[in-house]
Structures are given as C-alpha cells and as structure tokens.
TrEMBL record:
Transmembrane segments: 70-88, 94-112, 124-147, 185-203, 215-237
Classification via Pfam families: TauE
Any one annotated GO CC term: plasma membrane
Subcellular location: Cell membrane
Protein name, entry field: Probable membrane transporter protein
Domain of life per record: Bacteria
Protein family membership: Belongs to the 4-toluene sulfonate uptake permease (TSUP) (TC 2.A.102) family.
Species annotation: Prauserella flavalba
Cited InterPro entries: TM_pro_TauE-like, TSUP
Length: 241
C-alpha cells in the first residue's frame, strides 16, 4: 500500500512539475513506478503517461515550438531506440532495476548542475543529446535530462524550451512504446494513473505562476534522487533471486 501511494504521489507531483517547468514528470514518477510495477512495466507505463502529458502540455504551448530543432533531436533518438529496447528485453530484472536507478541518479546530477553547462552545443551537441536521450528514454523513461543540458548549453528561452521539449518527448515516447509494446497492467490501473496524471496537470496549471521555480527544481532533484537510489537498492537486494 505504501509503494502504491508513493507511485501515485510521484505521478501527481511529476505531472504538476512538468506543467510548471516543461520537464520533470519522468524524473519524479518513473523511479516510483518501477518500484511498484518492476522495471519493464514501470518504465513502459512511464513512457505512456509521459507521452499523454506531453501532448496535453503541447496544446497550450505549441506556438513557441521550434520544429527544426525538435526534428534534429528526434532523428538520432529514433535511431538508438531499437537498441535500447533490446537491452530492456535481455537484461535480468535486477540488473535492469540497477540500470534504471543509476540512470535516474546520473540524470538528476546532470540536471542539478546543468545551469552552468555548455557541453552539448550546436548540431553535434543536438545529435549527441538526442541519441543519449533516446537510449535513456526507452530503457529508463528518462529522455528529458540530456535535452535540458543541450537547451541550457544553447541558452534557449524558457517558452521555446517547454514547447520543443514536449514535441520531442512526445515523438520519442511514442517510438519507445512502439518498440516495447504497451504496459501489461489492468485497465483500472491505467485509468487511475491517467486520472492522477490529469489532476497533476491541473495542479501545475494552478501553481505555475505562484511557486518559486528554484524551490520546485530542488524538490524535483531530491525526490528523483531518492526514487533512483531506492530502485538501485531494490535491484541489488534482488540480484540473487
């Protein structure tokens, strides 16, 4: 019951964060979904919910979309997604848990220090960011951090970043689902997750202009780090099973 409550809170808080800042759903929600549902189902459900949320946010932000930049990021991501899907199918569950948790921790450390980043600039930076993001998205549901590093390296305006990130992640999450299939969960579980997702999006809409973004950023870092570390510990504890 506690794990179920944590997963629900992760989806709610993650959706609110993404509506407020443009990213954050997968960083917050996916590690807890993995703890409850296992690495394959948890990540795949995260992909599905993230795609739905990106489509929802994009309906409010599409006027600022940079189509060419989104395409430049998406092409290398689409190339590496089949390889990432192969890794998901072949790794044991315990090793996949450690991989997902480890990528979550690395992703959050990247985001935490990305305000000073200037390492993924230009077309080459976009290709590298897209490829790494695609692999991380299909294996761990974490496509956003590398895009964040690229956007901050390029000094994108916030409005442009939010819209372009939604379009890119919508494409990549749909491709990840096509490579792996839909999550194997009961219909009522999926319906409940969607309802919580929508509630989180509404909450984010309400607080978008009222919360200090630095405070929100720190909360995301702490929560996602805890979730990633918990996934690593669970993977290590079940490695001999």
């Amino acid at each position: 019951m506690l794990q179920l409550l944590l997963a629900s809170a992760g989806v709610l808080f993650g959706a609110a964060t993404q509506r407020t800042t443009g990213l954050g759903f997968a960083l917050v929600a996916t590690p807890f979904l993995v703890l409850v549902l296992g690495p394959q189902t948890g990540v795949t459900l995260g992909n599905l919910l993230s795609a739905s949320l990106c489509a929802l946010v994009l309906t409010r932000t599409w006027r600022h979309l940079d189509v060419r930049r989104a395409a430049l990021l998406a092409v290398p991501a689409l190339v590496v997604i089949p390889f990432g899907a192969y890794v998901v199918r072949t790794l044991p569950q315990s090793m996949l848990l450690v991989l997902v948790g480890g990528l979550a921790v690395v992703a959050m450390l990247l985001v935490a220090g990305s305000e000073r980043a200037a390492v993924l600039r230009g077309r080459v930076g976009a290709v590298v960011a897209g490829a790494l993001s695609g692999f991380m998205n299909v294996t761990a549901g974490l496509g956003g951090p590398m895009i964040t590093v690229h956007a901050l390296s390029e000094r994108w305006e916030p409005a442009r970043f939010v819209a372009t990130a939604q379009a890119y992640l919508l494409v990549v999450n749909c491709a990840s689902l096509a490579a792996k299939g839909l999550p194997a969960i009961p219909l009522w579980t999926l319906a409940a997750a969607v309802v919580i997702l929508l509630l989180g999006a509404v909450l984010g809409e309400r607080v978008a202009n009222r919360i200090d973004r630095r405070v929100a950023h720190r909360l995301v870092v702490v929560v996602a780090l805890l979730g990633g570390l918990a996934a690593i510990v669970r993977g290590l504890l079940t490695a001999g099973d």
